[in-house]
Amino acid sequence: MEGTHRLRDEGDGAARGKRPDSITRPPELEGCRRGEAGGGAFRADARERRMGTRSGRREPVGKEEMVSDILLPHPSLPNSMCLGPRSSESPAHLISCEANRIPFVNQNLDLTSWADCLRAWPNPPEGWVAWYNRVSKTHYATWETIGIADALSLSLSPLEKNENILKTIGYFWSDALNCFMFGHGPMTPTLLDVTMITGLDIASPSPSAFKLPKVPFTLSSKTECTSWGAYLKRYMKTKGPVTEREHTAFLNFWLEHFIFCGPSLAPTKNYLSLAYELAKGTRLGLGKLFLGEVYRSLQLMSVKLFSQRTVKTGGPWWFIQLWAQLYFQNQIPDFPPLATCTFPDADGREIRCTSYGQALYGLPGSRLIPKEAAGWFQIFFQGLSNPLFFPYTESENFENPVSFRLDSFADDASTRHLFSIMIRPCFLPVGMSTSNRIIKPGYESYQPVVVARQLGLGQVPPHFFLHHLTASRAELPDILTGQRCYTFFDALAIPIPNNLCFTTTTDGFETWWTMWKTHAFRRALGPSLKQLDAEHDTTHQEQDGPEPTQTDGSPFTFLPPAPVVLFCRNSPSLKQVIMQGQPISPKSASKSKASSGPVAPRASTQARKAVRKVAARKTLKRKAPVQDNLQGCDPSSLLTFDPESIEPAAPKASEEPSLEMVHGPLQRLKALLSSSVEILVENPEAIKGILDEIQPHLPVTLRVKLWPAATLSAFKSGVQSARQRITLRRAQLPLRADIAEKCQRLNEKKTALDAKTDTSANNAELETLRKELESLEEKVRMTKQLIQEKETFIARSREEAQGLTADLKTDLAEIRALSGQLVTGKDEDDETEIAEVDRQC
């Protein structure tokens, strides 16, 4: 056994060798020492008697018994626990049904089948960071309140794709158990991983497509916004406050593109109602929905690989990559210490990572290289000699998630409460749209019992309680079934001791897993590596292992591989289980399973028609009388006792119970049941006594419907707590009114503050005025330049005029001087004078 990891030192009152007082042992375990070899078998036999798994009948299991079966004492570590339920049965039947359905066992490996699967990748498009900054200024406090702030911060950074890991790890997925079957043991993403990597809420009520409100406004259709870039430009505003419509569009973008990564590669309305509910500040268990979608994507992938079709499912493969890199970090060269990694903030600055998700986002990726892909396949196939099952031992280096602090496990009751949710089985929601014809509302099974070591608990041979209860996955037909499905295990409160020490040890699990590995990993590794890497050279001729045999030496029988889960094919539907309705006969159950099988959201048209036909037949059966419904059914599957222990043979279907014998007791029962529920849960013995008296004389359907009345004591604590809460709420009405009044005043002050702090309009006006001022200043500068040029021209002109004046004076004086030298008079006068003289002579 491996060593343990201790969160806190033991308290002074912790006694070695004793189970913590906060967890009570069931009566059938009294007198059984923890170290005895027969203790596990005794526990399993007791559980099987209660559930009737050996005789084919399912008897009611009380919540106290289920709690004691889930958290078991560790045989050698006093302050550690094991995760149950524990099984003493051989896994041969499960292996026979499901071993050949794991893709690497029965399918040829073809990396080209993954061509379109990883196109939906959560890298931020241009403009997303600016939109995040704008919306976060107004709604970041709301995001923290509803538990999506950590996951939203991951959208600020691109994520490099590691195709070699993603295109090989899918071949090891078992959709029957919802886990990877590696060579060193089963592993799967858990609610603990979702909390530590994404910080999403797992404690709030699970979202249901039937209960989500109708969005009061419409967004553009896919034909109008054909890409995420067009969607962002259409709905991202740059001015004014962030409206509810813009906030909803922002969260719809984030859910579709960054979280669930739908295969459409374009905006859809599949998560619009969920985005609107989150925008209103409603707390929802988004973490459970996210893990359910992870399981659903892997299940659809396995169906595609089984049918040798191209994988185009899309889905949150980014989370599977982060999960695989975290758990297989020792196999990655130069893997950095996560506490030293950096992450870009909203302004693009590199800051210290505050969560495992941010640290893992910065790891380098890798394009598909056949040699590296074959290397990863070999790691997954052969397994690790020292696998890392619990990678969160350094969680104190990260501030997030704030709601779950492993470093204060002993002192933080809320952390232990979240841990109790992580370790209990449940039905995970999938599908958030009731109008989508392909992706319909349904559930996926969460069974952490098979990966207890990932939760810091000891691993025992697992008993798959949910598989004996109902189908591992199915669609949900209506709001009532969905509501009861998602809350089926909510009342299962598991007390967690505050001195719990985490461990990765096992108790009897090696034998269970050895049988699994012998049967599932019997094929030679070399041919598989050759399919992935044509240049792979095996060092020696590898041969397939011998065909497995039974303990008596006879050949082991494998059922023919099928695209549907075979292990729980005879289980009743979930609606029959949670509604206590009339079951269908085994014959019709097998037909129903054959038609609707895994009820995959992407069912073919022929399968959907078959489901509708079966539903129509069920509707007709419900309209028939009770006596007709009982024909063809096995009433022993509904009884809480063995009929053979009372009489040699069961009564014939034609024999009707005598109503005269039960009329009086039924009247007394009616009178008692008319009392308030507080009185009923305080004194349920009278009701139980009447039921024990008349039960053999009641019809089977009436016994089933009256069964909850016999278990009223199980609801005593819940009713008392609810009544106390009601009383406290009524006593706090003045306080609530005072709080409401103060909140109203606070809202008014916040509105005034927003008006003061929202300077976007004033900033726009100021920018306009500044631009106008710059324009005016440019005009003034140009005018001054023109004035200066004119002044210079005028001065130059004056200087030139003065020069010309001086030249003019000089020339005038010269002319005057020259003019003084000229002979005055006219030639005609002189000629006249000469002629006169000549005449006189």
UniProtKB/TrEMBL annotation:
Feature: compositional bias, Low complexity: 585-601
Keywords: Coiled coil
Record keyword Coiled coil present: yes
Biased composition (Basic residues): 609-624
A biological-process GO annotation: meristem maintenance
Superkingdom classification of source: Eukaryota
Domain (Aminotransferase-like plant mobile): residue spans on this chain: 147-465
Statement: the UniProt record of this protein carries the keyword Coiled coil: yes
Coiled coil: 736-786
Comp. bias (Basic and acidic residues): 1-36, 44-63, 534-543
Region span, Disordered: 1-63, 534-556, 582-643
Transmembrane segments: none
Database matches in InterPro entries: AminoTfrase-like_pln_mobile, MAIN-like
Cross-referenced PANTHER family: AMINOTRANSFERASE-LIKE PLANT MOBILE DOMAIN-CONTAINING PROTEIN (PTHR46033:SF65), PROTEIN MAIN-LIKE 2 (PTHR46033)
Protein name: Aminotransferase-like plant mobile domain-containing protein
Organism this protein belongs to: Lolium multiflorum
